[in-house]
Amino acid sequence: MLSTSKTKLLTELLNLESVQVIKYKKLPQVGLILYTEAQSKKATCIRCGNKSQNLHQNHRYLIKDLPISGQSVYLRINRRQFKCDNCGKPFSEELNFVKKRRKYTSRLAMEIVKQVLADDIKTVAQNNDVSAEEIETMLKDKTKELKQEKSSRLKKLRNNDFGNCRPGVLFRLFNYSFSILNHDLLEWEHFHYYIDRF
Ligand SMILES: [Zn+2]
């Protein structure tokens, strides 16, 4: 069991109103697993709206959440089943951070959708709370690094290969897949030309 101060810190870092972290585990190659429990002993019946604390059974499982400091994060959550004191029927509680039958938090889904829709530096900058200038610097640094690597799988791209590529797609490609592109390293000047057009 974690100390109260550690529990409190992890719960604050997690920043989900309705749950608290009770322990954690770090698994190599997987990430951080945060074990959570509901803050409230009660849940609202989905049929009649009555608040019940008549716990019927626990249903614990893992869902994926936003990463912390570059590490994948999974939450072990408990979607409890209650038996309603009023209408007498069993119900599965609603959790405000994960939809039923989904294995990821709503905030992770939102983040991913935003990034998929982002097709210019400005949007990506806003989503990640960094400036467009910082992103340009990141890209410049990455380009330098890659040039220095002189990896055999990186060779210059023919200008033609970009002719039909939408600038937004190109940008995403470079922003998220720079290091795994297995055939191309674009010259910075050429790349910059595309950034200027966004
Ligand atoms: Zn009910």
- Total strands: the figure is 11
Reading the helices and strands in chain order gives HEEEEEEEEEHHHEHEH
Number of domains: 2
Shape: elongated
Radius of gyration: 23 Å
List unreliable stretches of 5+ residues: 150-169, 175-198
Major beta sheet, strand line-up: 1-2-7-6
Overall pLDDT, averaged?
76
Distance between the termini: 51 Å
Explain this structure to me?
- This protein is of the alpha+beta class.
- Strand 6 and strand 7 form a beta hairpin.
- It folds into two domains: 1-103, no CATH class; 105-198, no CATH class.
- The termini are far apart.
- It has helices at residues 4-14, 106-117, 121-128, 132-149, 167-177, 188-197, and strands spanning 19-27, 31-38, 43-44, 51-52, 55-57, 60-68, 71-78, 81-83, 90-92, 155-156, 184-185.
- Helix 3 (121-128) packs across helix 4.
- It is elongated.
- Bound molecules: zinc ion.
- Residues 45, 47-48, 50, 84, 86-87, 89 line the site of zinc ion.
- Zinc ion binds at residues 45, 47-48, 50, 84, 86-87, 89.
